Amino acid sequence: MTYPLLRVEDLTIGFPYGTVVHGVSFDVHPGETMALVGESGCGKSITAFALMRLLPPGARIQGGHVIFDGVDLAAAAPHALRDIRGRSLSLILQEPMTSLNPVLPIGMQIAEVMRRHEGIGKAAARRRSVELLELVGVTDADRRYDDFPHHFSGGMRQRVMIAMAVACKPRLLIADEPTTALDVTIQAQVLELLDDLRRQLGMAVLLITHDLGVVAQWADRVTVMYAGRVVEQAPVRPFFATPQHPYARGLLDASVGHDGEAHYTTRRLNEIPGSIASAAGEAGCPFAPRCPDRIAACRRAPPVLTALGPDHNVACIVAAGTDHVAVDR
Amino acid sequence: MSLLTVENLHTRYVSRGRTVTAVDGVSLTVAGGETVGLVGESGCGKSTLGKTILRLVDPAEGSIRIAGEEIATLRQAALAPFRRRMQMVFQDPYGSLNPRQTVATLLETPLKVHGIGGRAERRAQVLDMLARVGLPGDAAERYPHEFSGGQRQRIGIARALVLKPQLVICDEPVSALDLSIQAQILNLLVGLKRDLGLSYLFISHDLSVVRYFADRVMVMYLGRIVESADHVTLWRNPQHPYSRALLSAVPVADPTRARAPMTMRGELGSAPTTGCRFRSRCPVAIDRCSVEDPVLRDVGAQHRVACHRPG
């Protein structure tokens, strides 16, 4: 087995008012696409920001490790981080309009990354930027180098962001909901582009999304988060064939796209009752208040991630068959 | 007679001296008890079409008839009785509720505006509607910020239904909601339709949701309907290359299914001035497409498509 490119270990993130990510662990292997899935408020985006050490004001890594290429980013000094960010570890965000500088030509923004990290000259950086724009499918790249972000559509801006992110051939690209703001046909084009680049450049992708269709079609493995915790992780095939955590099962059942033939006249959708807020202030499993399988022991302590098989883990005492252990403890 | 009949509707916006035709000759009907889905990507004019039907935006030309009565040319003051019969549910349950009003006030205002009932009767109707959308009775005295996104959408639905309309135009009603909440709201809309005999015009960019929710589906591209069919036919046998691209682009939550190659390139731009407006992105366009603008024609029972090379 290859040593992981990124190992997140027991990562805990908090704000002054409380902890929002509780001991999250997962690996990303070289060259793979790992999806981090969950609904709004589950902590997936803040986890991504923590990996880059770009947490919003007030948020703090309270514990755990982020081992990337042998370096613990959670403890690294700022100058060491600056050398890694944008070079071997890159990030693209959901909203390409607000993540580009509106008053600089887009080509210059791409060139800046390479000039900073690779110390190349202006002319060389321009040439490489034009090549990158061509690589991500911007036509007439030489002329468009001098255009500003507002000259581009949403899909094209996301391509520019991707060009910037892959400029220094990163080993890991973190993509936080990269296509959520885009139309479905443009989403397909952008995901195709990301996947081509992953193969061409041999990079790994950590794909953060709420869309199970995107996970099934584009990821190798999946980690599902709920209320700041990992609830299940598995390769995509076993995950979609036999999801083990009741939340993961519920999500698949609730999704209209899962059962292709479903129509309102013939089938009612399965609901997950309540909302993510239902667990506020509870001691046990955060999903217990909404869970169809809960037993009394679920309310005692948050379940630990337990191995069900090779590379398939679940945090549920019922699914893992460890409910008696929890009772003994 | 259809509940709603729209014929050759045009809506134009003037922006910096330029005229943009957002809705460009749309015709459609919604029968009593029917759900018609309207799908298309951002900028195709689907929301403008919904707003024009409600006369929140004025049409440039064309006809809008509610149960046979023309409303496209009525003055705003004369529209009130029709507004009672058509209501709208918006996408954003955060932005569409006044944060300074209690839920009771939010729901009572439409009743007051239309002069319905006395104070006690209105109160009873508000509480009845809250119960129908699955909110607790004590919700009435609370403010929108005290509710989750899904509950706020329930409030938005209650406000639309409190006037007992016949037609509800839903503009992306579940797009801002998490998956587990989407199912709750869709089930609620299905139940309300059955209980209250509603018709829906359901506007969405999400094909999976439309597939589940609509009886008939219309696909819109740059201001025009390019294909319309019943929900089974559209998914089994889409005829317009744009419909096919749209359907194949939806990622299926099944990793054993191969990804469909994306045949359509480019993005929604402005319409070419001659011929078919889709031709610049179309994988099967021929010379004729740049000369002759295709019109909607029948290709099967209740199945219409605007394309020179369907299938």
Brief write-up:
The complex is a heterodimer of chains A (329) and B (311). By secondary structure, chain A is an alpha/beta fold.
Features:
A: 329 residues; Rossmann fold; eight-stranded mixed β-sheet; B: 311 residues; alpha/beta; four-stranded antiparallel β-sheet; 12 strands; globular
Please describe what this structure looks like.
- The complex is a heterodimer of chains A (329) and B (311).
- By secondary structure, chain A is α/β, with parallel strands linked by helices.
- Chain A has eleven helices and twelve strands.
- In chain A, the strands form two sheets. Chain A has an eight-stranded mixed beta sheet, with helices on both faces. Chain A has a four-stranded antiparallel beta sheet with strand order 2-1-4-5, covered by helices on one side.
- In chain A, α3 packs parallel to α6.
- Chain A starts with 5 loop residues before the first strand and ends with a helix.
- Chain B is of the alpha/beta class and 311 residues long.
- Chain B is built from ten helices and twelve strands.
- Classes of the chains: A alpha/beta (329), B alpha/beta (311).
- At the A-B interface, α7, α8, α9 and α10 of A face α5, α6, α7 and α9 of B.
Helices and strands, with pairings:
The complex is a heterodimer of chains A (329) and B (311).
Chain A: E1 6-15, E2 18-28, E3 33-37, H1 44-51, E4 60-68, E5 71-72, H2 78-84, E6 89-92, H3 106-118, H4 122-135, H5 141-144, H6 154-165, E7 172-176, H7 184-201, E8 204-209, H8 212-218, E9 221-226, E10 229-235, H9 236-241, H10 246-254, E11 306-309, E12 312-314, H11 323-328
Parallel strand pairs in A: 3-8, 3-9, 6-7, 7-8
Antiparallel strand pairs in A: 1-2, 1-4, 4-5, 9-10, 10-12, 11-12
Helix pairs in contact in A: 3-4, 3-6, 4-6, 6-7
Chain B: E1 4-15, E2 18-30, E3 35-39, H1 46-53, E4 61-66, E5 69-70, H2 80-83, E6 86-89, H3 103-113, H4 119-132, H5 149-161, E7 167-171, H6 179-196, E8 199-204, H7 207-213, E9 216-221, E10 224-230, H8 231-236, H9 241-249, H10 287-291, E11 297-300, E12 303-305
Parallel strand pairs in B: 3-8, 3-9, 6-7, 7-8
Antiparallel strand pairs in B: 1-2, 1-4, 4-5, 9-10, 10-12, 11-12
Helix pairs in contact in B: 3-4, 3-5, 4-5, 5-6
